[in-house]
Specification:
Number of helices: 15
Order of helices and strands: EEHEEHEHEHHEHEHEHEHEHEHEHEHHH
Largest sheet: 8 strands, parallel
Helix content: 25-40%
Number of strands: 14
Radius of gyration: 21 Å
Strand content: 15-25%
Structural class: alpha/beta
Shape: globular
């Protein structure tokens, strides 16, 4: 398969763009890669749910890499465009769409959504085109982008997003941000929560795991990419306040571009023996079950899956009330403690409340019922116009 971006270790269900043969594809899902983020996890889950109903499903990626690659169900066909980023694969994507003519085309993440909508329009394929947004767009654009890049993204979004049949947002807050940033009319928007395999998570969490500490002090845990959005420096400062009152530890599960910054900050806190950067873990739930609480310190989100996963594991939650998602998941504080964004003192106070046994008590099964995979799959199939 040389020449199409694949190597000899390619999985059996994977083919490159040169190898695609005519077939009746029901649903094609498009992602930049299989990086271990929330959007990628959701799409891998959705692909399996669709395939389990007898639908023919393709997962199309710009580049064939990422921690979640091994989780793609064998019934789902992988299409590797063999490019470094979605924008460089637009013509390959057009060729794929014209050849396969999927009944429905679904993409995620703003950059990939723009490419998907353009490719779908230029391909002339009649199937439905659905874009999905996973975060608060305004907040995402404020971080890590130059003014010209922000302006260009907004200008393209306002022009291109209306080309889609529907824009799915993972929360009501995310839907509002799409409406405000890109001018997508309300009638074109649909809110669908992320599917979370509650039973699977609970089963996976039964395996044995250990934190690196030998004592029995309580452990707070955070799970997510080590990037600016998650604001782990805020969490480190809040943890230092908590540690000054009570013995405890902090484990951060995830990997990303801010690892070196966090390592430096941990050294500055002089709490290196109490803080563990665990790196990416395929099964973070093993460690979540050992923790006293999950803490989310994000500046913005869409619908953070890890909060739903924590509810599934009966784990108390402390989260910033960031736009958007945490307040919806926790129903305004009914299912967890919410604190103002960027307020380390309030975050530390909420963490101390957990240590003193003052966290909310509720029915965890009731809290996660909204996110059952089959319900979410039904909602997506309705938007995609595909029946199983």
């Amino acid at each position: 398969m040389a020449g199409n971006g694949l190597d000899e270790t390619a999985s059996k269900n994977q083919i490159g763009p040169v190898d695609v043969v005519a077939s009746a594809v029901d649903i094609a899902l498009f992602l930049p890669s299989f990086a271990g983020g929330g959007a990628e996890r959701v799409f891998v889950t959705l692909s399996g749910l669709f395939a389990a109903r007898g639908l023919r499903v393709d997962l199309v990626v710009a580049r064939h890499e990422g921690a979640l690659l091994a989780r793609v169900p064998p019934e789902v066909r992988l299409i590797d465009l063999g490019v470094s980023r979605p924008s460089r694969g637009i013509f390959a994507l057009i060729r794929y769409l014209r050849r396969e003519r999927p009944r429905a085309f679904l993409s995620a993440l703003t950059h990939a959504n723009l490419v998907a909508a353009i490719a779908h329009r230029l391909s002339g394929v009649e199937g439905r085109c659905v874009l999905s947004e996973r975060v608060s767009i305004e907040k995402a654009l404020q971080r890590g982008k130059r003014p010209l890049d922000r302006w260009l993204t907004v200008a393209l979004g306002k022009r291109i997003y209306p080309w889609s049949d529907t824009v799915v947002a993972v929360s009501h807050g995310a839907a509002l941000s799409v409406q405000q940033a890109f001018g997508v009319p309300k009638k074109q928007l649909r809110v669908i929560y992320n599917p979370v395999d509650i039973a699977g998570i609970r089963a996976a969490a039964q395996e044995e795991a250990r934190f690196p500490w030998v004592d029995d002090y309580p452990v707070f845990i955070a799970v997510g990419r080590l990037n600016e959005q998650k604001n782990f420096p805020l969490l480190l400062r809040a943890f230092r306040r908590v540690r000054a009152h009570m013995p405890c530890h902090l484990a951060i599960v995830g990997e990303g571009e801010e690892r070196r910054l966090l390592e430096s900050l941990i050294r500055e806190t002089r709490l290196s023996q109490d803080i563990w950067l665990a790196g990416y873990r395929d099964n973070p739930w093993l460690f979540m079950t050992l923790a006293v609480s999950l803490v989310c310190s994000s500046d913005y989100e869409g619908l953070p899956n890890v909060l739903i996963e924590a509810l599934a594991l009966n784990l108390p939650i402390v989260s910033t009330d960031c736009p958007s998602g945490p307040a919806e998941i926790l129903e305004g504080g009914r299912y967890g403690l919410l604190t103002p964004v960027g307020d380390e003192e309030a975050l530390a106070a909420a963490m101390l409340r957990v240590l003193t046994g003052d966290a909310p008590r509720f029915d965890y099964d009731e809290a996660v019922a909204r996110f059952q995979p089959e319900k979410i799959a039904d909602q997506y199939l309705n938007v995609l116009g595909v029946s199983s």
